[in-house]
Amino acid sequence: MIGAVDIGGTKLAVGMVDENGVVRSKMDAPTGTGSTYASGLENITNMLRQTAQEARAEITGIGIGSTGPVDPLSGEFGEVDFLPEWRRKNPVQDLAKTFGVRVALENDGDAGALGEAGWGAGRGKSRLIYLTIGTGIGGGIILDGQLYRGVDGAHPEVGHQVIDPTGPLCSCGFRGCWEALAAGPAMAAWFQSLAPTDARHQHEFTAERICKLAADGDPLAHRRWSVRRTTWASVWRT
Q1: What is the Rg, in whole angstroms, of the alpha carbon atoms belonging to the chain?
Q2: Does residue 43 contact residue 57 with C-beta atoms inside 8 Å?
Q3: pTM of the model
Q4: Fewer Cβ close by (within 10 Å): the C or N end of the chain?
Q5: Within 10 A of 221 (CB to CB), how many other CB atoms are there?
Q6: What is the pLDDT of residue 237?
Q7: What is the DSSP string of 37-96?
Q8: Residue ranges of the chain that CATH labels 3.30.420.40
């Protein structure tokens, strides 16, 4: 039984997965604004124990998919944009010490690509591109059955392709990155900047809420959704 951990800028998700790729139990919790590594590690540890208990299983290994640049060889976080307090910390060493099992760490896009190649839509395929869209935008690439890594193991940061050089400032320091234009917080920020102060659900502007408003015919939400689709089309043409 493998403990699966997903570390995102908005939430932490943990589950127990059996040898057939079936999720036996799962739970999640907010990452927390300004979350410290110590509190995050404590949350992950507690959720691993709880989901293992719910699945009535003993943890035999732990796999981590995390936002931001990570070093899969050393198990260390890099310059994680959304979790600055986690930079240079090593969850592989810390969780291995706590649970006494082997622990592996990958960028969440790469972890997702490996998961789809092994158990999902890419099973049996030699090549695939996986995208993850949430607080940020990331991706992973499988080429000829192998996870693609760049020079010195660099991760292909697809979310930081510059789509519009005059666009909004991105957390990476550039302007107009795909992530700064079309990720969840980017949608919410754009919508809030143009919405009238008396707009419905003024304080609930999330990507999910904007999509629902667009489906209900809200003109501003529909405009935001159209801009997002145009942005995605620009990426594919690139």
Answers
A1: 19
A2: no
A3: 0.77
A4: C
A5: 23
A6: 54
A7: HHHHHHHHHHHHHHHHHHTT----EEEEEESS-EETTTTEE---SS-GGGTT--HHHHHH
A8: 2-114, 162-237
The 8-class DSSP code of residue 156 comes to -
Residues 6+ apart with CB under 8 A from 114: 106, 140, 142, 147
pLDDT at residue 238 tops 60: no
Assign domain 2-114 to a CATH class.
Answer: alpha beta
Class of domain 162-237: alpha beta
Q: Report whether 78 contacts 87 (CB < 8 A).
A: yes
Strand partners, 220: none
- Asked whether the beta carbons of 68 and 78 are under 8 A apart, the reply is yes
For residue 7 the two structure tokens come to: 């570390």
Q: How far apart are CA 25 and CA 20, in angstroms?
A: 14
Residue-level pLDDT at 130: 93
